[in-house]
Design brief:
Number of strands: 31
Largest sheet: 8 strands, antiparallel, barrel
Oligomer: single chain
Shape: globular
Length: 542
């Protein structure tokens, strides 16, 4: 495994205005996510204009043995969207546009059944399908440069997913159109506008939106397969643009956040538009504004956004009441940024999530097992092996739970809690509480799914299944055999090992999914049924 070959530590640590004991708490949390010999991350925690903690841990480049530092640039992915949103607000402040304007006033885009406004693009309520879910978006395509007009053409003629303003659905296409509007109104390329009107004004000296990559300070991004860490798929920055092409450092992101909320980029009154939950046509609100989303850390409201792009994940999180800011940049595809940022913010808040485990007997663990269902009918399976309890959402992956006492559990490595409820001493329900939502679960009478029984595989049998199968336009499953082992990779996802349970039937251990191949009369295989919460039929395309 690549992660064990290089043992050069990255110890770039800067601690300001913090006692050693506080630093140790931050260190412990960071070390629970990153190791010195693998791709890792850089973090920064600040409050009231002072850095509380800053550290990088891991490798910037496995091939050269170069360790990460806090000066490394990372792709920040969709954290870029707040930069595009501020650009639009600057133009609105200058009287060059209104967010209520229809987008066709500024760009060439087909009229749809209902008007689409700039605000719809900003809030992901336009109904325009996201190009990143389309068949034209894949590693072979996005490794090459594309002109903005050609990128827009990929989704311009697609039907809307819903009437604008009636629903919320994340769409990278909307922020590509915002990029086009920024360029049209300003007369500048996106990268040039960002440099002059965003980065320079915020004092960001190590940030770029240029399409040119390869700066010596850029960390290499990685994905993981059965052989270990490998460089992620190359992606031309002409694709993500204002939806996700910025590269930055944790320090520069702090400068950005400080400048934005101080009113240096747009007046505070104008900025407030971006930090209001979008109001949908039915009167409900969705916790997303203009390029920022809204959650909480231990009850304190946050303004934040995460990002993910080939080889990198990121998180930018701000608690406005306490003036606490956290940036986490990671050079590997993982959940680390999403999970670590609120953990660090909670430490700064003085309310760490690190609850201590309480002993639980095997008999007590069995009390919690069963099938629990939310109001939408989605099932969550609670299982126990000895005194170890796990939870798995239907179609997802199993998660270890830490017992906190009083029928309450914590999802390991996360901040999600599961609190069980009893009636006459028997567990009858549970409250699922995450930072962005709360669900009431009811215990059903349904039996837990039977565990898969693994059988041995033979390479000679597997060869019939090897190939690529399309489940929907732009989404395929590609199977390969390595000796007597079987693997699958879904479009733009990590490769997973596949295990056999019966002739032509297989399953995954990392997520709740199974598949069955359907041989033809001549023994050839042209179809596969994939089951992950729902059944999907796939046809062989290669």
């Amino acid at each position: 495994m690549l992660r064990t070959l290089l043992l050069i530590p990255s110890l770039a640590v800067l601690i300001v205005a913090q006692g050693q004991s506080d630093a140790a708490v931050y260190d412990a949390e960071v070390k629970s996510h990153f190791a010195a010999d693998a791709p890792g991350g850089a973090v920064l925690v600040a409050q009231g204009g002072k850095v509380l903690y800053e550290r990088a841990l891991g490798m910037a480049d496995l091939a050269s043995g170069k360790a990460l530092s806090t000066a490394n640039q990372f792709r920040i992915g969709s954290v870029t969207k707040q930069f595009a949103a501020v650009s639009i607000l600057q133009m609105a402040e200058a009287g060059k546009l209104k967010v209520s304007d229809e987008i066709q006033q500024y760009i060439d885009f087909p009229k749809k059944e209902k008007p689409i406004t700039i605000a719809h693009l900003l809030t992901h309520t336009s109904g325009i399908p996201s190009f990143t879910s389309g068949s034209a978006y894949g590693p072979d395509a996005y490794a090459k440069d594309i002109a903005l007009k050609d990128l827009i053409a990929l989704f311009a003629d697609l039907p809307l997913e819903f009437e604008p303003g009636t629903k919320w659905n994340y769409s990278n296409s909307g922020y590509i159109l915002l990029t086009a509007i920024i360029e049209e109104v300003s007369g500048q390329q996106w990268a040039d506008y960002a440099n002059e009107h965003l980065f320079a004004r915020a004092g960001m000296t190590s940030t770029t939106a240029s399409n040119t990559q390869g700066s010596p300070s850029e960390a290499v991004g990685y994905s993981e397969d059965s052989t270990g860490w490998k460089p992620a798929n190359p992606i031309s920055m002409t694709w993500p643009l204002g939806a996700g092409n910025i590269r930055s450092t944790v320090t520069d992101l702090w400068k950005w956040n400080s400048s934005v909320f101080a009113g240096k980029l747009v007046p505070v009154a104008r900025l407030a538009q971006a930090h209001e939950a979008v109001l949908l046509a039915d009167g409900s609100k969705h916790p997303y504004g203009y390029g920022w989303g809204f959650q909480n850390v231990q009850g304190s409201p946050t303004i934040e956004h995460n990002g993910g792009i080939d080889g990198f994940v990121s998180a930018s999180l701000y608690l406005p009441k306490e003036d606490i800011y956290v940036a986490v940049l990671v050079n590997r595809e993982s959940d680390d940024a999403n999970n670590l940022a609120p953990m660090l913010a909670a430490i700064a808040l003085g309310k760490p999530y690190g609850w201590s485990a309480v002993p639980l007997s095997a008999g007590e663990a069995q009390d919690f097992t069963g099938v629990f269902v939310n109001s939408d009918g989605v099932e969550r399976y609670i299982t126990a092996e000895g005194n170890k309890v796990r939870a798995m959402r239907q179609g997802s992956r199993p998660m270890d739970l830490r017992y906190l006492g009083n029928d309450r559990f914590l999802y390991e490595g996360d901040v999600i809690t599961l609190s069980f409820q009893r009636t006459a001493g028997k567990v009858t329900g549970a409250q699922f509480l995450a930072r962005d939502r709360e669900e009431q679960l009811t215990r059903s009478d349904k039996p837990l799914p039977k565990p898969h029984v693994e059988i041995a595989l033979k390479n000679t049998d597997l060869q019939a299944y090897v190939g690529e199968y399309e489940l929907m336009p732009g989404f395929t499953l590609t199977f390969r055999a390595d000796g007597d082992r079987f693997f699958v990779v879904a479009t733009r996802q990590q490769e997973l090992e596949v295990f056999g349970e019966a002739p032509h039937k297989f399953f995954l251990k990392e997520v709740d999914a199974s598949m069955e191949f359907h041989p033809e009369a001549d023994g050839s295989v042209k179809r596969v049924t994939f089951i992950q919460g729902q059944k999907m039929e796939g046809k062989r395309v290669k």
